[in-house]
Design a protein that fits this description.
The protein is of the alpha+beta class and 179 residues long. The protein has one domain: Peptide Deformylase. The protein contains 3 helices and 8 strands. The chain has helices spanning 33-47, 138-151, 169-176, and strands at 54-56, 66-69, 83-93, 97-102, 110-117, 119-125, 131-137, 161-165. Strands 1-2-3-6-7 form a 5-stranded antiparallel sheet. A 3-stranded antiparallel sheet has the order 4-5-8. A hairpin with a 7-residue loop joins strand 4 and strand 5. The longest helix has 15 residues, at 33-47. It is globular and about 50 Å long. The protein starts with 32 loop residues before the first helix and ends with a helix.
Length: 179
């Protein structure tokens, strides 16, 4: 399976995986080579994206409830293993929300402001089907919410505001004063 092409342009097709609710991974799929290869392919594809911190399966045209988080998103917690979430559900969020800048590999060079809960707890499964719970704050909590939106057919531009489109990463960095 070729997972290198992770950017899918938004279109009006009814079957666009970015706009449909992804299917749950079934019990008999856990631990299979197919699932392991899919997750590994997602991690490899994400590692190639300098500005990407997470990737949901619908972003590579796979309508499955899976997302992975890049280790660069949690470098300060090097003890964490690669973060893979299968059939994730948000179980708890903070009352406190925060405005945050957001972008997405699926809507390249569009950035905007979103409101996200400052902390969140997700319950999910690993590739072998072991259930776990993971609580986080800051960027990781933000990622949980963004990626689960993907699994529900929602893009940040659907609820974001102050949206701006740039021609490239260089233009974005120049206008935002980022080195």
């Amino acid at each position: 399976m070729n997972t290198d092409k992770i950017i899918i342009q938004i279109n009006k097709r009814k079957d666009n995986p970015l706009r449909t609710i992804a299917s749950a991974v079934k019990k008999n799929e856990f631990g299979t080579e197919e699932l392991k290869n899919l997750v590994e392919g997602m991690q490899t594809s994400l590692a190639k994206e300098e500005d990407g911190v997470a990737l949901a399966a619908p972003q590579i045209a796979i309508s499955k409830r899976i997302f992975v988080i890049s280790p660069k998103a949690y470098e300060e917690n090097a003890k964490w293993k690669p973060l893979v979430f299968i059939n994730p559900e948000i179980k708890k969020v903070s009352k406190k929300v925060q405005e945050m800048q957001e972008g997405c590999l699926s809507v390249r060079w569009i950035y905007g402001t979103t409101e996200r809960h400052t902390s969140a707890t997700v319950e999910a499964y690993d590739v072998m089907g072991n259930k776990f719970s993971f609580g986080a704050s800051g960027l990781i909590a933000h990622i949980f919410q963004h990626e689960i939106d993907h699994l529900d057919g929602v893009l940040f531009i659907d609820h974001g505001y102050n949206l701006e489109e740039y021609k490239s990463e260089e233009e974005y960095k120049a206008k935002k004063g980022i080195n």
